[in-house]
Structures
1.
Amino acid sequence: MFGSNSKPSTHHFDTLISGKAEIVGDLHFSGGLHVDGKIFGNIIAEDDSNAVIRISEKGVVVGEISAPHVIVNGKVTGDIHSCEHLELAAKASVEGDVFYNMIEMVMGSQVSGALQHRYRGKSDERPEMPKHVTQEKPILHVEEPVSNVKELPAKGGQEKAKAKAAADAKP
């Protein structure tokens, strides 16, 4: 980041969300994810996956981000959970709380929310951070008993049903 000692980024990005793409719903990923488009939902990677997400200057995320390595240079509306390294570049705009293990903020980056030094881990000294999922997986098939459905009369029995209803209605 500073001076000539900084190393160039060696991250490999397997997945690209282009500037013309818009995703609605939660996104689970591993490896590298580069976002130039818009995502309306949570972005989640497992803590031990060494996954990297990069939100470019054109990228927009409305939802929470939970990944080991997070690089933001676009707009995020929602909390960010980074259990390894969080980088907020010069054009980063975050509206939400930021939970991190290591943080790197460049002049010009903006955070409207709390900065909290926390990280996930197995020991008591490293409490687990919450994983928020707002959208449940869709239910494809539900079997529920039907309780208040009237049985239709059999074919040809409609006249008998009408006569019975008329007889029941007479005092």
2.
Amino acid sequence: MTRENASGSTDGSRSTRDDDPERRDGSTRIGDPQSACDDTDADRYRHLIEHVQDAVVEFEFVDGTPIVRDTNRAFVDVFGYSADEIRGESLNEWVVPAWNRSEAAALDENTASGEINYQKVTRKTKHGLREFLYRGVPYNTRSEEDAGGERDAANGDDADDREAISGGDDADGDRTGGFAVYTDLTEISRNERRLKVLNRILRHNLRNNANVVAGHTTRLLAAIPDGDEKTVEAAATVERAAHELERLADEAGHIRTVLQQRPDEDTHVDPAPLVQSVVDDRRKRSPNATIEVEIAGSGTVLADSRLRYAVESLVDNAIKHNPSATPRVRVRIERATDSVETNPTAPETDDHGHDGISSDEWVIIHIEDDGPRIPPHERDVIRDGEEITPTHHGSGLGLWLTQLTVETFGGDLTFDTSDLGGNDVSIRLRHRASE
């Protein structure tokens, strides 16, 4: 009669989970994704560590040196070393470049003292240097005789299970070790560097060439004979396009700033003086525009200095896209006190974009105007992620950049109709309650 083995098979074959702990690559099998893991702490631990995508090394501190005890499958794939190759060896000797040994020693010292380490590091693999987010997670267990006997009996753990998740004994019988977790950032870091260089080159060349075009166009306009209106208009169009290219170069820089910087949770500003400063500046730049400020209620919000860009961009759009010779703009700050419950997936009938969050937690900055409504296709760039096309562009990019900035602070950009007759574009930001 064939006896059923530990994996449930009745064909007399060996269990791939319990009876064959060593894989061909030399790393230990910590779990089988095709079968349920045993209901013990050790088996659940093995199953989790074995199937995470990050490279994980378990090590034990011996005289302050991290000695490899085990690795997961991802470590073998990423670093190229099998567990058999490095088990019992110094982890740093295998993966730390010689010029980074002092850095690694400092991280090990922190881990041995019980601290969790987070740091971007360069490590050597069988295929060359790569960049990682390193996390060193320490553990220190009391001797099993003193602390684990009752727990092990209750959980069904045996001595082999305990040895698999703990390091070596120290003078007090304690075991000190840790886990090194490596998230491969190589391609992300390389792409960031490439984009940074490309962005710098393109912005520099774009701005320089735009300045050349604008400068020559100004001289051409001065040299055009009186009465040649067609030539004047053509040259003026070229000049406007050159200035638009300069603006695009600046916006490209802003995109990079927004995408690379994340505000700290404790970062906060008072929008009232910021708004007043923007309005004062725009009044000087656009003396024909009437720009009003109303502060019905304010409060500190979760944001940083980049909020200024968002307000400036919306005020500039309100002036620029108004055909009136004397455009009117109103910047209004309020602290909402009532609840808002709307459907964010509703079509044109819901032009607010509210998300059902109780709005008494928000400070809202309204930028209103008396100009034409923002076309639906430009709002769609924000609301539905529509593509900015040569036919439909207008202020779409500027609105998208503003939305990107506001989202960085956990806020939102909404659209409505103002009682001035034009647009009411609102920045909603989380209010930071006073402590």
